Amino acid sequence: MEKMMKIGRNILFVIILLYTTHAYAVPELKFGIAGEKADGTALLDLSVRNGSGTYAGFNAKILLPKGITVSGISKGELLSSGSFVADFRPFSDASHDGAVLIAYSGTDTFGGNGVLMKLSLRIADSLAPGTADALFATVNEGTVNSRYALADVSSTSLTLTPAPGYIAVGHEDADADGIPDTWERIITDQNPSMDINTFAPQTDFDNDGSCNIAEFFNNTDPTDPDSHRESLTGDMSGDRDITLADTITALQIICGIRVPVNPDAASGKTKQIKLQDAVFTLQAIADSE
Questions:
Q1: Model confidence over 159-184: pLDDT tens digits?
Q2: How many CB atoms lie within 10 A of CB 40?
Q3: 3-state secondary structure of 103
Q4: Which pTM was predicted?
Q5: Fold of the domain built from segment(s) 231-289
């Protein structure tokens, strides 16, 4: 009997520990990793991690290196189901380019973890290849929490942790494996036994079920097992939208032309793009009109 009571107390302790850890988890506002595409653009995710509450909106001032500008935004999955208004205001000062981001709703809320907003970036041709930082502002302007804020339903700013992200500038691909060298170095820098010439795009560095080249196309972090996304069948570019450009990419691959492609866009288990995938993209486009 005493042994059973001891086991019961231990179970109760674990339950209380798990509950309090969950209840007092500090949400994290986190940038992802973006890779420059051949046309000088990139997509950067802004996500919530450790989210355990209900939120009514957020704002953030982001700082980017000179030469990287925000050209547009779109709502992520956390904001897409409600009547949230999302907006941005780009700015440029002596040391940074950047943007002020905001999303709010007078009626709806969001909760959990996921992508809040996707930032479309334009990268100047003059920038040298390398890894650029995506940062949050560190100084508030006036009495407003303008650096970053996550608000609850009573419009109270919650305590949160900001996490920077990275932009792999440059689309040189020395080993012609479909992933830019600068993006590959994000992984190889964490694993000295690897280099960009032996880096395998079909392997899964962080063991999250999404291979490295799929993480590149999906704009997720190849070093973070909690950063991955189910790909959309037919989405050859990984931009979460199926357009005629995806059909053209599929047809190029079928004809033997080597072009970068998100392997998870294939409908078959072999991850090979076939004629059925080109047909699928056309049907998806037709269904959306």
A1: 788 888 889 898 888 888 888 888 88
A2: 14
A3: strand
A4: 0.68
A5: Type 1 dockerin domain (1.10.1330)
